[in-house]
């Protein structure tokens, strides 16, 4: 019987995975490593996240099914809790996901993942360590269609976050070659295919803002590789529990079959929120900082620190959109995972329970707060 250690249960993907897995009720034991003062508090934190996927009563009932181990994954190599000894699978989702966290990102995402992996290496029955990276570990110059393979360690990164995630993968491979490591790299997780914006509006605000601005840093025929949280959770569970996998690295992405084309998304917005029937999207050069700032001010205003940060975040995210990258998922589909629905297909569900765009951005605010010592090497494109 599988005994799974999950990190990141209080986050977006962790909540989605746990909600999906606990509903299956297949006898698998779930152990969640959670930052908390004690197990009760940790369970309440997990229940709080699960309540984004279901009613509060069911969330409490599901949370009672998991074992809580209070802890910080970056210190896991010093954690001798015997409940970790019999773990058979590790699903390592936890990470510092702030774009501009500076050196702290490397301490958490690279050094912290190594600490957890060292603890995992002492688990007697460990069958798989599923490490969650990011598709953008490939760096900014790997497109337009990125294959499922190792990244160039010297790749150029737009933000320190993706560099730290790439460094984590490299460090795990170099320092723990005997770990039964599988890497899953999600692309961009937006919304939920049936619950819409309820579980999270992370990055949904950006797609909505692009629509309201009618301004793209790329051609309207370009693409954005987006997947819903529930589909990503199902794919991760397959990669975690399938006894034999053909590869040790996968994209959890839309890939060519389901990639979102901005022009299609534009038509989907028009169907959901009819305007003039034209909804013309203009392209602009991201280096034209005034063009985006002036348009942003016109549409949202720039009258609060929140909106100023949202402009900076829009610019940072637009730098990724401008790359027009699609992440091939042939390996994942060959493991039996069905293609993801494209965002155009579930946009209406997301908009149905969406609040104001600026409020949705507030949910992502932490991702875009700068560390005091942001690296000087950041390209101008992402410095607002
Ligand atoms: N969401 C996406 O679009 C996306 C795309 C590509 C890759 N990914 C990757 O997928 C994974 C999950 O992403 P997400 O969006 O679910 O992230 P998230 O919502 O930001 O959640 C991060 C999780 O990590 C936990 N965590 C952070 N530092 C920790 C520590 N030192 N010890 C214990 N737990 C810690 C957080 O716990 P607290 O609640 O205690 O802070 C939280 O549960 C990450 O590895 C991310 O890089 C996500």
Describe the model:
- With 384 residues, the protein is α/β, with parallel strands linked by helices.
- 41% of the residues lie in helices and 13% in strands.
- The strands form 5 sheets. Strands 3-2-1-4-5-7-12 form a 7-stranded parallel sheet, with helices on both faces.
- Helix 2 (39-50) packs across helix 3 (56-63), helix 4 packs parallel to helix 5 (160-175) and helix 6 runs antiparallel to helix 14.
- The chain is globular.
- NADP nicotinamide-adenine-dinucleotide phosphate (NAP) binds at residues 7-8, 10-14, 35, 72-74, 93-97, 108, 112, 132, 134, 165, 186, 188-189, 202.
- This is Linear gramicidin synthase subunit D.
- Residues 6-235 form the Thioester reductase (TE) domain.
- It comes from Methylobacterium dankookense.
Overall structural class, as computed from helix and strand content, comes to: alpha/beta
Largest sheet: 7 strands, parallel
**Ends apart, CA distance between termini:** 51 Å
Overall average residue pLDDT:
94
Molecules bound to protein: NADP nicotinamide-adenine-dinucleotide phosphate
> What's the alpha carbon Rg, rounded to whole Å?
20 Å
The CATH topology assignment of the largest domain is Rossmann fold
Count of separate DSSP helical elements:
14
Architecture per CATH nomenclature, i.e. the level-2 architecture of the largest domain = 3-Layer(aba) Sandwich
> What is the domain tally?
2
- Counted beta strands: 15
């Amino acid at each position: 019987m599988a005994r799974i250690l999950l990190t990141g249960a209080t986050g977006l993907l962790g909540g989605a995975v746990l909600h999906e897995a606990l509903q299956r009720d297949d006898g698998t034991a779930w152990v969640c490593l959670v930052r908390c003062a004690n197990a009760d508090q940790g369970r309440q934190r997990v229940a709080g996240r699960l309540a984004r996927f279901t009613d509060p009563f069911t969330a409490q009932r599901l949370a009672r099914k998991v074992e809580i181990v209070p802890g910080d994954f970056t210190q896991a190599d010093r954690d001798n809790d015997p409940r970790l000894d019999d773990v058979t699978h590790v699903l390592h989702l936890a990470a510092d996901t702030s774009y501009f966290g500076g050196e702290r990102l490397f301490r958490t995402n690279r050094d912290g993942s190594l600490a957890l992996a060292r603890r995992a290496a002492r688990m007697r029955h460990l069958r798989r360590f599923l490490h969650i990276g990011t598709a953008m570990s490939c760096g900014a110059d790997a497109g337009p269609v990125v294959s499922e393979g190792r990244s160039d360690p010297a790749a150029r990164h737009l933000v320190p976050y993706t560099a730290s995630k790439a460094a984590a993968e490299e460090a795990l491979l170099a320092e723990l070659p005997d770990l039964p490591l599988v890497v899953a790299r999600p692309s961009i997780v937006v919304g939920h295919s049936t619950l819409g914006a309820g579980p999270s509006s992370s990055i949904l605000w950006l797609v909505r803002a692009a629509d309201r601005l009618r301004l793209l840093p790329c051609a309207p025929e370009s693409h954005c590789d987006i997947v819903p949280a529930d589909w990503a959770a199902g794919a991760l569970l397959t990669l975690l529990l399938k006894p034999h996998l053909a590869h040790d690295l996968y994209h959890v992405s839309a890939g060519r079959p389901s990639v979102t084309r901005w022009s299609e998304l534009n038509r989907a917005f028009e169907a959901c929120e009819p305007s003039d029937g034209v909804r013309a999207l203009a392209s602009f050069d991201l280096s034209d900082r005034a063009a985006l700032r002036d348009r942003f001010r016109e549409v949202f205003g720039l009258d609060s620190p929140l909106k100023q940060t949202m402009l900076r975040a829009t610019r940072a995210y637009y730098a990724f959109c401008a790359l027009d990258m699609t992440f091939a998922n042939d390996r994942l589909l060959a493991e039996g995972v069905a293609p993801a629905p494209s965002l155009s297909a579930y946009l209406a569900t997301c908009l149905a329970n969406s609040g104001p765009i600026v409020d949705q951005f507030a949910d992502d605010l932490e991702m875009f707060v700068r560390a005091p010592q942001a690296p000087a090497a950041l390209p101008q494109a992402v410095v607002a």
